[in-house]
Amino acid sequence: MSGAQPAPAPAPLRLSERIVYPESPRWRDGALWFSDVHDHAVKRTTADGCVHTVVGVPGRPAGLGFLPDGRLLIASALDRCLWTWDGEALTQVADLSGMTRGFLNDMVVDGAGRAFVGDTGFNLMAGEEPRPGQVILAAEVPRTREFRTRVVTRDVVFPNGAAVSPDGHTYWVAETAAHRVSRFRVTADGDLVDRCTFAELPDMPDGLCLDETGALWVALLRQGEFRRIGADGTTTDVVSADGRLAVACTLGGHDRRTLFLCSAATTMADLARGVSNGLIHTLTAASGAGWP
User: Fold this and answer.
1) Tell me, what's the pLDDT at 186?
2) What positions constitute the catalytic site (predicted)?
3) CATH at residue 192
4) Residue 234 resides in a domain
5) Which residues contact 209 (CB under 8 A, 6 or more apart)?
6) Is 160 annotated in some ligand binding site?
7) What is the reported pLDDT for 148?
């Protein structure tokens, strides 16, 4: 990391509260969609800050992404399944429990509708000893709507927030327990190869998002801040979560330059019991969204 001082950031504005623990935010159809993990529901919030429940997910929602036809794809942590929500029905489309060692975690869906789903490998909140996780590729067969799944990379240390480039050729993932973000090349078949370290970090990275310049905004969980890390791996901006856990972030809004910051007033011990007070703030970013 460069020794240059990051640019000062304006204070973010509070958008929404009365949330338990917001994760995996995604901008779609004029609203911010997110998993309220410990309330076991997918929710969305609009520009007025009102929070609406979209659908309950008993298996605890984690990663979210939208398929090309507009259906919402949901990874559920505890039962380790993939579900779709079409606005009316929650439908299980894949059972990944036989492939996983930990919980399903964050997820990103590329422009072709392929989902890259993180398997944590171990239960961090229960204090289990770390063991390698993996990334699972789930791709729908158009004519049958059957999801085919396979592991596309192993030895990822607690995969968490993820992003994919607009051309679908590059994939980034936060390795939370290793304090780093890694980058992979995505092959035509969806394999993740040519791994390298994009950034070494002083704390546990959680959610992240990509902007149009190739920089990442990364939430540093316990350090309670959001960092923008340029394509060269240097930190350019830092935004404080004001004493809260920094959980996840995404770019959205009408011009895709609104940075949505998800945080939670809780402790790691309380969070293990599902006790948390989640908030969503916003600020205007210098660079807009990349993908998704």
Assistant:
1) 98
2) 206 (proton donor/acceptor)
3) 2.120.10.30
4) yes
5) 161, 163, 216, 217, 249, 250, 251, 289, 290
6) yes
7) 97
> Under a CB-based contact definition with an 8 Å cutoff, are residues 109 and 93 in contact?
no
User: Into how many domains does the chain fold?
Assistant: 1
Cα separation, 266 vs 130, whole angstroms: 23
Spatial contact of 90 and 73, defined as CB atoms under 8 Å apart: no
Kindly state the helix (H) or strand (E) to which residue 268 belongs, with its residue range. helix 268-272
Q: Is the pLDDT of residue 286 over 90?
A: yes
> Among 36, 106, 119, 206, which one carries the catalytic annotation?
206
How high does pLDDT run on average in the chain? 94
Instruction: Give the pLDDT of residue 8.
Output: 61
Please give the Cα distance from 33 to 259 (Å, whole number). Answer: 14
277 is annotated as contributing to ligand binding: no
- Give pLDDT tens digits for 57-67: 999 999 999 99
**Tokens in use for 136?**
């699972």
Residue 86 annotated as part of some ligand binding site: no
Burial 255-265 (b: 16+ CB within 10 A, else e): ebbbbbbbbbe
Q: Looking at residues 203-216, what average pLDDT do you find?
A: 97
Q: Is residue 7 part of a domain?
A: no
Nearest one of 25, 28, 279, 260 to 161, comparing CA atoms: 25
Q: Is 206 a catalytic residue?
A: yes
Asked if 103 and 78 count as a contact pair (C-beta separation under 8 A), the reply is yes
